[in-house]
Amino acid sequence: MPAAPAVGAPRAGSPDLLRSVFRQHAAGVAVVTAHGDRPVGFTATSLNSVSAEPPLISFGVGTGSSSWPVIAEAEHIGVHVLGEHQEQLAATFARSGADRFAAPTRWNRGPEGVPVLEGVLAWLVCRVVARVPAGDHRIVIAEAVAGDPDGAGRPLLYHQGRFNALRDR
């Protein structure tokens, strides 16, 4: 039987501990969009499938983000699963102060007027059903009302503070 890996001394719970642990967790990269007086969007690594019946998703958004005021009021949001070829798009939507919808970003108004990004692996337009307080964030729960799963390519991942691609074994 192989030896168990050594376990380090536990550290007290803190924001730094949480960030350090989640740097070890590879996550898919998505962009969430919405439209109020203007289109907004941000890069998210917290996208989750919640339920198949009804078809629910969730993601976290910081209440201090520039997108939050629009997300806080939006009836519908867009969720876009990015491909490994879209590292620059992910970086644009993660950058504070960037004009995220200017060229070279390609997008159109989709169902319910939600900005839908072109060239993504998959997208959904969802009706927001809840915004749950969670510290300095809100967990948004939304029901899929339209989408397209048929984009080409492989997913973009986020790990160790960097965007990455899947590696074949």
TrEMBL record:
Where does the signal peptide begin and end? none
Write down the SUPFAM superfamilies for this protein, in alphabetical order.
Answer: FMN-binding split barrel (SSF50475)
Q: SMART domains from the entry?
A: Flavin_Reduct
Which keywords does this chain's UniProt record carry?
Oxidoreductase
Q: Name one GO molecular function term.
A: oxidoreductase activity
Q: Which domain of life is it from?
A: Bacteria
The enzyme's main class, written as a single word, is oxidoreductase
**Which Enzyme Commission number(s) are listed?**
1.-.-.-
Q: Which residue intervals define the domain Flavin reductase like in the entry? A: 22-165
* Name of the protein this chain belongs to: Flavin reductase family protein
